[in-house]
Amino acid sequence: MTLVGISELPSLGDELENAKRAASYRAVDENLKYFEHKIIGIGSGSTVAYVAERIGQYQAEYADKVEFICIATGFQSRDLIITNKLRLASIEQYPHIDIAFDGADEVDHNLQLIKGGGGCLFQEKLVCTSSQQLIVVADAKKKSPKYLGTCWKKGVPIEVVPGAHVFVQSKLREIEGFEFAELRDGGQSKAGPAITDNNNFIIDAHFGQIQDPIELHSRIKMLVGVVETGLFVNNAEKVYFGTPDGNVEVLSR
């Protein structure tokens, strides 16, 4: 096969989906060094689906020369890897990742992120921090005009050990800016709290607009029972935003 350029792609019939695909394809085309990057982290989310699709196209194009080994952050990303005929492996086998692609729930002007809205939290951060590069893809609605907590109104996800959720919620009240926190519910398909891939609970903690996500992450992470926070600080190298008009906006450090 021959890789199709972004400008030559047929329309998906939806402007936002076209923008997500354009952002994802461009992120892969501009950052994946397919003869150098062997171990690739694949995140989750509707935009990342197009990342996996594009990497699958590269794999098919250069099958006789390269074989990408892909590390998933959760069930959805495992499915994306398999669907696109990429090789699935675990981070236990490959703890050092060359490059990772993932989505975000919100991105601020310093490329700090809120992630974990979909429930993949600890594993996403493990993959991101194990990677030499993190490239984020998202639609433009995820871009904050300044501070985190402006666009994403569902709070900071916090993965906690089940037996510690009451204690953690009580200690969160002592942190400056705290508004309220709630244990994430499993929804209509599950009675009780949502369960992560690591069999933990998620607390969604609201702090309004977050002016110092680094400090807030540090304060929350210090609490006994907290596994990880959804504040991804100083991780992202570039962010590709797909805009409703079909263009792509790129922010980088």
TrEMBL record:
Query: Keyword Transport, does the record have it?
Result: no
What GO cellular component is one of the record's annotations?
cytoplasm
UniProt pathway = Carbohydrate degradation; pentose phosphate pathway; D-ribose 5-phosphate from D-ribulose 5-phosphate (non-oxidative stage): step 1/1
Q: Which UniProt keywords apply?
A: Isomerase
Q: Which GO terms describe its molecular function?
A: ribose-5-phosphate isomerase activity
Instruction: Spell out the reaction equation it catalyses.
Output: aldehydo-D-ribose 5-phosphate = D-ribulose 5-phosphate
Signal peptide from the UniProt entry: none
Query: One Pfam family for this entry, by name?
Result: Rib_5-P_isom_A
Which GO biological process entries does UniProt record here? D-ribose metabolic process; pentose-phosphate shunt, non-oxidative branch
Q: What is its EC number?
A: 5.3.1.6
Domain of life, per lineage = Eukaryota
Gene3D superfamilies to which the protein is assigned, alphabetical: 3.30.70.260, 3.40.50.1360
Q: What class of enzyme is it?
A: isomerase
Q: Which family does it belong to?
A: Belongs to the ribose 5-phosphate isomerase family.
Name assigned to this protein: Ribose-5-phosphate isomerase
Q: What is the lineage of its organism?
A: Eukaryota, Fungi, Dikarya, Ascomycota, Saccharomycotina
